[in-house]
Write a structure and sequence with these properties.
The complex is a heterodimer of chains A (222) and B (350). By secondary structure, chain A is an alpha/beta fold. Chain A is built from 9 helices and 5 strands; from the N terminus they run βαβαβαβαβααααα. The longest helix of chain A is centred in the C-terminal third of the chain and has 15 residues. Chain B folds into 3 domains: 143 residues, Rossmann fold, CATH 3.40.50; 116 residues, no CATH class; 66 residues, no CATH class. The chains are: A alpha/beta (222), B alpha+beta (350).
């Protein structure tokens, strides 16, 4: 007999992300920018089965139906096809009554602004890394490294050699993951998780892309 | 089965529409969102051929009237409590029966409707008189007048379609008299075994149920357990046993009809609730019953989902939340798929 699932807590503002790493990176950025905790960061448990994106998409309509619900933020990886990913999230929102969704994601993240008229919960979408390029959370985090960082270039070269020699055990799509963790492996405390690296300022919370992301959170939740 | 429902000016519902009911419907919502009122509205609609009785029963459940008034009269005219008209007025949205705001309860599939509106009664001032009109879409509508002094006058005597049995189980359990009446109707039939199997959810040793002729005595309902040589009074067992007995008896006695249960989880542990839902889902399909139940409990929702997910056809169950937005109440629907994601992820549906 399965155990009863935990009764939910009332959380009128939620940010839905694909995985636990997204959550820690976002928590760290919020802390550094002193954003008050007015929203929760929700991770689907299917993450373990490598279905993060499918689970997120399935949860969107269900979360939007919650009683007295105010705001849903959605942070997902663009992966290889940014346009297709945008389409899959905007069609789900469209089915719930959201209209005038832009054809492509705005550079500074999308926030639904017509909620007064429609009475729908406020919604915002951010495609990792920057709403323009294909990629994932790790690409976003790599852009928190200062541009003149010699170690990053060296790590890129290292991975290039590894891949040339066919020694990579990751699939090539996951090169950005390998890159950020190679870079993190060479810090004073080797192998620090991404969120902690932001908290301890090894990664810059003030990089231009981080500032755009934090501004999107502000527009959405405050 | 009711496919859809419209309720206007009844209790807290100004204008409620729900469509696509399933066979087994779990209703949730904040306090005062109208869950019990929705059960009542359905009860009145499906009991329209016996509207006096269902109306009084419903007022009694809310304790708005003390005891069932004696139904005396010649079949078309009864004398009921003189307070009845005041109580009926309280059924109207905003507790007032003025203007053209009639109570209307109807479904389009099947075609059933019931309306209550105020009529002028010149004889008695300060009291409202009402006309109730019932229709099942096939015969001429039946009209019943409810006068201010409590007199009920039935105008036509054309029978409506054969009555479908239905029971409204309030959060308090059925009393001995009602239980024993139900028991009489299933005695020595296979349905008796179903009731025993429902009791086995909580107490696997139960073998037989017996009713005695001592309604006021503590041993009015007895159980035979494998584990004891002598019969054991039901009352000596927990609240949950009485709840399961009431639910099981009610379900097996409304074949082809409707079972309405308020706060269905009362007294039942999570694991027992899951078994109870198995029982209800199975019996609803087997005996062609449509079930409407309310709950506040997350455990109850989770156990409903769990039982539903194990069925080959999980479309037979749905959850509806009554959601209040300012003056209006609307229903938000969750199918089995959505419910399973919500339960797994602890996403609130209440």
């Amino acid at each position: 007999m399965p155990k009863a699932s935990k009764p939910p807590k009332i959380k009128p503002q939620q940010l839905l992300v694909e995985g636990k790493n997204d959550r820690h990176v976002i928590w760290a950025l919020c802390e550094k920018h002193q954003l008050p905790e007015t929203f929760s960061v929700e991770v689907p448990s299917e993450e373990d089965f490598g279905q993060g994106i499918e689970a997120v998409l399935a949860e969107i309509p269900i979360r939007l139906k919650q009683e007295n619900f105010r705001t849903l933020g959605i942070v997902i990886d663009a992966d290889q096809d940014l346009a297709a990913r945008w389409q899959s999230v905007s069609s789900r929102l469209n089915a719930k009554g959201y209209q005038n969704i832009p054809k492509a994601p705005p550079l500074d993240g999308w926030v639904y602004t017509e909620r007064e008229a429609t009475n729908l919960p406020k919604v915002g979408v951010w495609l990792m890394p920057d709403n323009q390029l294909p990629g994932m959370l790790e690409n976003f985090v790599a852009r928190l490294i200062s541009e003149d960082d010699g170690l990053l270039t060296k790590a890129e070269l290292f991975l290039h050699d590894v891949e040339q020699a066919g020694l990579n055990r990751y699939t090539l799509i996951h090169n950005p993951k390998a890159l950020i963790h190679t870079w993190l492996a060479c810090q004073q405390t080797p192998g620090m998780p991404m969120g902690q690296a932001i908290t301890s300022q090894i990664l810059s919370y003030n990089s231009p892309l981080a500032l755009v992301f934090v501004e999107w959170l502000r527009r959405l939740f405050y | 089965m009711l496919n859809d429902l419209t309720v206007q000016n009844y209790r807290c519902f100004k204008d409620l529409h729900i469509k696509d009911f399933a066979r087994v419907n779990l209703l949730v919502g904040m306090n005062n969102s109208g869950k019990t009122s929705l059960l009542e509205a359905i009860y009145l609609l499906v009991n329209q051929d016996d509207i006096n009785r269902s109306l009084i029963e419903l007022l009694q459940n809310r304790a708005e009237t003390d005891k069932l008034p004696g139904l005396s009269g010649d079949g078309n005219q009864y004398q009921l409590s003189q307070y009845l008209s005041e109580e009926v007025r309280n059924l109207f949205y905003g507790f007032q029966s003025h203007g053209n705001q009639d109570i209307l309860i109807k479904s389009s599939n099947p075609d059933l409707s019931l309306s209550i509106h105020k009529i002028n009664n010149k004889h008695i001032f300060n009291q409202d008189a009402f006309e109730i009109i019932c229709s099942d879409g096939s015969n001429a509508p039946i009209k019943i007048n409810l006068l201010a002094d409590g007199t009920v006058v039935k105008h036509d005597n054309l029978p409506l379609l054969p009555k479908k049995p239905s029971l409204l189980l309030a959060s308090s359990n059925l009393n001995y008299q009602k239980l024993s009446e139900l028991w009489n109707s299933i005695l020595l039939t296979p349905k008796e075994n179903k009731v025993v199997s429902a009791l086995q959810i909580l107490e696997p040793a139960v073998r037989r149920v017996g009713f005695t002729s001592y309604p006021n005595y503590h041993s009015s309902i007895l159980l035979k357990l494998d584990t004891y040589p002598q019969p054991i009074p039901l009352i000596s067992m927990g609240e949950g046993m009485r709840r399961i007995l009431a639910i099981a008896m009610a379900s097996v006695t409304v074949e082809n009809g409707f079972l309405l249960v308020d706060e269905i989880e009362t007294g039942l542990h999570y694991e027992a609730q899951s078994e109870m839902w198995h029982f209800i889902l199975e019996i609803a399909q087997e005996l062609d019953i449509q079930v409407f139940a309310t709950t506040h409990s997350w455990d109850c929702i989770a156990s409903f989902q769990e039982a539903l997910a194990q069925l080959e056809d999980d479309s037979i169950g749905k959850l509806f939340r009554l959601s209040r937005q300012h003056e209006n109440i609307r229903a938000v629907e969750y199918n089995s798929n959505e419910l399973s994601v919500a339960v797994r992820q602890s996403i609130e549906v209440r």
